[in-house]
Structure formats: C-alpha cells, structure tokens
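Quick log. Single chain, no ligands specified.
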Amino acid sequence: MSAADAPPAALGDLRVVELAGEFTGLAGRHFADLGADVVVVEPPGGAAIRHLPPFVDDDPHPDRSLRWWSEAAGKRSVVLDLDLAADRSRLEVLLGTADVVLESDLGARLAAVDLVPDTVLARHPTLVWVSITPFTRDGPRDGEPACDLTILAGGGPMWSCGYDDHRLPPVRGQGYQSHQMGAVYAAIGALAAIAARRRTGRGQRVAVNLNAVANTTTEIATYNWLSVQSVVQRQTGRHAAPVVTEPLQVRTADDGYVTTGVPPRTPAQFAALAAWIAELGLADELPEVVFLQQASDPDRALGAPEGNATVDAMAVYSASRDAMNLIASRLPALEFFVGAQRRDLPVGAVLAPEEAFENEHSVARGMQVPVDHPELGRTVRYPGPPLRLMRTPWRIVRRPPTVGEHTADVLAELGADPGPLAG
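-> predicted structure:
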C-alpha cells in the first residue's frame, strides 16, 4: 500500500509542541508515531539529550546520539532561545497553533520565560498543557534533584527487581524506565484532555509525577504494604511476593536462560507436554510423565493450580514443572522458546537486545522498520511499533531531525518574523 492509499493517521489532526526536556522525549514520540505534527523546541546547540551516548559510529555528535534518535524520530526541530524576547514571541505564535504542550522544566525556569502554565492557558484556553516532573510541581519536593535511578529507587520498582540472593543489591531496570512510564501516562492524560475539550471547548493542565507513576508499577508491593503491612521479597525472574515462590528460571543446554512461566492448565497443554517429552526421548528420565498423560483426559480438566490443591492436582502440576525444566535443560534457549510456543505453552527466553531484535517472531511482527538517513548515506533499522492498530497506522514519517532543521520552515508556516534565528 502506498502512502497515498494508507488510512489517515490516528492523531493526524493534532499539533504537539514539545519544549525539549529530560522527560518529554518519549511522550512526544508516542504522538509523532501516531501521526501528530510534533515540533520539538530546542535551545541553541540542541537539546541536552543529544549529547548522551551511545553515538552512531562512536562519533559524539549532537545529531548522532542514539538516545536522541529513539526519542525524536518523526519530529520537527525548531531552535529558539527563550531568554530572548524575540524568540519568546515566536514561541507564542507557535503555541497559538498547538493542541498539546509537553514540558518538564523547573517552575522557576518557566516563570523566567513567561511560560507559567496557568498564564499560558489564560492566553490559549484550548491548549492542553502537560507537565512531566519528578515530583509534584509546587509540592514539598519540587526542585529536588532526581534522575531515572533515584525515581525507580524512591518510587518503589527497584525494591521488587533483583535476585533471590539478597546479598546482591536491587536491580535498576534499564532503558530509562521511569521516563517511559511517565511518557505513557502523559500521552494518556493528554488524549483524555483532548477528548474532554471536544465536549467543553476548553483545554486543561495535566500533571504527571514520575515518583507517583513509578509507584503504580510496583504490582502488589505497595498495595500489600498498605493493606496488611507485609513486605514483598524480590525474586529471580518472577514476581516479587511476601513469601518465596518456586524458581522459574532454568539454564538451557547452550548456557542461556529461559523462564518456564505459567504451568500447563488444560488437558490439551498436558497432552502437548507429554508428547514433547516422548518426542525428545526423555520419558525414561521422567516417570512422572504418567500424571501428564492422565491429565490429558478432557473430562479431567484441573483448572488453575491456585484453585485446586488436591493431591492428584498437585502431582500433575509438579510433574508439568519437572517436565518443563527437564526439556529446557536439554535444548538451546531459543529452540525451547519456539517449541513451547508452538505447543501453546507460555514461556519466555532471556535474550540479549540484539537477539530479540533479530528474532524471527520480532521481525514477523514488524519490529524492524527501515528509516532513511540521507545525511549518513544509509538506511537504519529502527525498533517498530509497540502496538498494532487495526484501523490507523503507526509509522515513522521521518528520521530524527538535526539541530534546528525545521526552524525556518515552521516559522514560515506560521507567518512569524524569522529575524536572526537562534540556531
């Protein structure tokens, strides 16, 4: 299907102005991927994130930061020096055309450049203003230094992330997870405000507090403490829980690891697992396979293990776990993963990022998207859509912009006086 024949983008009627900040990039990327015109306003020299490694070809250039690429694909870049009255006037014209503003600046900085949210909304009452900050703006911790590490630690996720061996410290999840979580909440909040604007004709403020966002992702940890003052324990490759649960992570024949996941529950799954044991010639090593064969009878559906604690059921569930562990120990990780998936047995394989990216399942799901980089003279494969929409497309419409690449074009569209541009 050609671009001309493609269905309209889900957010193709929106303009988002992103005031480039530490926490805004991924939220803006969500809008860009779904078709919104996202204009990222950068200071002279470019956004700070452009200077974060790793860099393409190990060349530390502001247009080659992979962190920038991951957050800025599909956007347009405008450079404005907001310390200058002329550039603040240009931004004011741009805000007059916007539906959403994304920012993560300190309140004092916004005040210094006449961007106090309530004041801006008084001038542009249909605008949806989204703030993404580590803590509540104007709250007792406003302005307190914070980063992804401290947000994940203080908000709670790190307590639940790590290994059974508690002599080892908790583990910080990689990929700037607090930024990603905040971006999702910011996008959801902004879209809810856009929906409300259709009824009321007015915009509003949306405040995203990353510390609170992180706390919502602690699964049962926070709720367990609030309800019964019980503390969960981090565990290797499985949910943190108040009591230690059975290990699920198994070393495979190629020294990889898999997670044996949710145990079989249906007669068809027990039958598939018993047949797999037989196919691999492992039945003699697992006499308990007889329990799986018995559980394969459609008239003996056992249901979920947590709902059936009979002796017969426990024997079946124990045999299924032993069978999964035995098979995993005899196969390479990826072969075990694919074999289990084909038999409707939910498991996971622990893969390096490059292995996951090149995996045939990932490729088949569109995880590799070619993006032309004419300035590099080559095409680069980007990670593809986090979701697949049935009626509206997800797409990367352009490579990440170079510093100020679209300043003149955007100002010309607005009819704003270009004057001497900051970039």
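The CA atoms of residues 305 and 314 lie 8 Å apart.
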